[in-house]
Specification:
Blueprint (H helix, E strand, L loop, with lengths): L1 E5 L9 H7 L4 H10 L1 E4 L2 E2 L11 E5 L16 E4 L3 E6 L16 H12 L6 E2 L8 E7 L2 H8 L6 E9 L6 E4 L2 E3 L6 E3 L7 E10 L2 E8 L6 H8 L20 E8 L6 E5 L7
Parallel strand pairs: 8-15
Antiparallel strand pairs: 1-4, 2-3, 2-4, 5-6, 6-8, 7-8, 9-14, 9-15, 10-13, 11-12, 13-14, 15-16
Length: 277
């Protein structure tokens, strides 16, 4: 990946390192660029101590990222792509990253295969993650620098979900309850020792004794929606961990919105539900 800037009068006589820090490039990233990448001013190599002049073109080349993940030939549903980001519609049942239980056939492995096909020399940088059973939209940064920019302030990332829950949810509301993980147990619980978590929910419709609910997250704790909805007596239909189902539920990340780290545009991607198509 490379980036370039034409130096303005305002940045005249700035050191390269000071200028790049103002562009949001971290000290760690700059060190990597110095050691294994390139810093060019009007196509001549320069050190970070060089004083920039107005009108000059500064270009940096990020070093290639080391790839250690095994590729997995799996068809990805890409709903958005540009030079910096991807948005993937992940199917239910596909883990996001390798784990001891699922060491290979994951979204990250599938992305590794896709990167090979398009000649992208980068590792996998997931901006948001979904549980294995959860389907829907995931943001992927193509480069470490883009991931760092996206993760600096997660408040600009809007994540919305929908699922059928047990019972009749009579009104919209918000759940602000801390979520706690005890030792190595998979199941989370509501406990004051836990991390702050907030879920806003909106009743879309009532059907056959259950409710189709849409949720917006302020935080992104593991199993947050499942724990929160169960805590108010409305577990997800089919959830065996927090309800009495068989383990198959329809929690779907149907919308993501974010400020693009390079263009600064507001990107909103909405996925239609099967019954809306």
């Amino acid at each position: 990946m490379k980036r370039q800037w034409i130096i303005s009068k305002q940045d005249h006589q700035s050191r390269i390192d000071d200028f790049l820090f103002r562009q949001g490039i971290s000290k760690k990233a700059l060190k990597s660029i110095k050691m294994k990448g390139e810093i060019l001013v009007d196509y001549q190599h320069r050190t970070v101590r060089y004083l920039l002049n107005a009108g000059e073109t500064l270009m940096i080349h990020y070093p290639p990222e080391e790839k250690t993940m095994q590729p997995y030939d799996f068809p990805l549903k890409i709903v958005y792509e540009d030079d910096y980001l991807l948005v993937i519609d992940k199917p239910s049942g596909l883990p996001s990253i390798p784990t001891r239980t699922h060491p290979f056939c994951t979204l990250a492995n599938a992305l590794t295969f896709y990167y090979q096909q398009i000649g992208l020399t980068s590792t996998i940088h997931l901006v948001n993650r979904l549980d294995k059973e959860t389907s829907g939209l995931m943001i992927v940064a193509k480069y470490r620098y883009i991931h760092d920019r996206m993760m600096k302030d997660l408040k600009h990332i809007d994540r919305r979900y929908r699922a059928h829950v047990r019972g009749i949810v009579t009104s919209d509301g918000s759940i602000r309850l801390p979520i706690y993980k005890q030792d190595k147990q998979m199941k989370r619980m509501i406990d004051e020792r836990g991390k702050e978590a907030c879920t806003h929910y909106h009743v879309r419709r009532i059907e056959n004794g259950c409710s189709l609910v849409e949720m917006k997250l302020e935080t992104g704790r593991t199993h947050q929606i499942r724990v929160h909805m169960a805590s108010i007596g409305h577990p997800l239909i089919g959830d065996s961990l927090y309800g009495d189902g068989l383990g198959h539920f329809d929690l779907d990340s149907y919308q993501v919105g974010f400020i693009h780290p390079i263009t600064k545009q507001c990107i909103v991607i909405i996925k239609k539900a099967a019954h809306d198509e």
